[in-house]
Amino acid sequence: MASPSYEIVKNRDIPEVDVLVAGFPGLGLIGGIASEQLINTLSLEQVASITCDQFPPTAVIFDGVPRRPVRFFAGSGFLLVKSDMVIPPQLSNSLAREIIDWSKDNGVEEVIIFDAVPESEDSPSEDQIWGVISTHSAASHAEKLDIDVIKRGAISGISSSLLLYAHEQKIEAVAMLAEGSSNMPDPRAPATILDKFADYMEIDIDTSPLLESAEELEKEYAKLVQQTKKAQDDMDLRGAQPPLYG
Question: Measured between alpha carbons, how far is residue 55 from residues 69, 165, 219 in Å?
Fold first, then answer.
């Protein structure tokens, strides 16, 4: 299989930033919902988008206008990358490198990732947020974020690729992991992540709209993800070769 070819299309000048925030749809859609709430409540502006010749042929529609599913936003001193599609596993590593390299070129020195881990009956509280760090020096960031670092375990998907590449590049990165369910997103989880992130960044983030409009937001976001997943499944089906019989 040929290596993926990426292009980052810049929409406008990027303000001064030193933190990259990444929120992708994963378990419970927690990363996606949290990033969407940041965009809405802080009025972040889109500054760029990513194209790839191996992405599913998908456009997301906002106010009647098509947008690429993987986009960069900026404001309040940080850069945000989010996706409205599930990233195909075979693209996670290369996409993570593309995101971090481009972000570094634009002043980013630190990465914070919003994602989830499976629910556990042993969790000390319902609003527990766990952490994974890219380097030991990033432990101070986890402490300031008021999250407990996971000592042993495993994560997967684009979040793991971002952490691993940050580790290789000696970039301090922290994944903020709420407990999520694969059955139904819980809006309290992304709200808890955002409350801790707001304290860390010393900014105000209103999470009350997230809780009030949770049901509608979950349905809309789940529908977007389902549509892009179907597009990827259709591509995989068309790419499958028929068996040969002698």
Answer: 9, 21, 23
Nearest CA-CA partner of 176 in 36, 44, 21: 21
- CATH code, domain carrying 88: 3.40.50.10900
pLDDT in tens, 96-109: 999 999 999 999 99
> What contacts 70, CB < 8 A, 6 or more positions away?
49, 50, 55, 81, 82, 83, 84, 85, 87, 95
Q: Strand 45-52 and strand 6-10: pairing? A: antiparallel
127 three-class SS = coil
DSSP 4-18: P-EEEEE-SPPPP--
For the chain, the residue count is 246
Summarize pLDDT for 124-155 with one digit per residue, the tens: 566 789 999 999 999 999 999 999 999 988 88
The range of the structural domain enclosing residue 187 comes to 6-239
* Helices (H), ranges, 155-202: 157-168, 188-201
In a domain, 244, yes or no: no
120 touches 109 (CB < 8 A):
no
Whether residue 191 contacts residue 129, with contact meaning beta carbons closer than 8 Å, is answered with: no
Domain-located, residue 34: yes
Q: What is the pTM of this model?
A: 0.84
Residue 6, beta-bridge partner list: 52
The tokens for 178 are 């709420």
Pairing of strands 78-83, 70-75: antiparallel
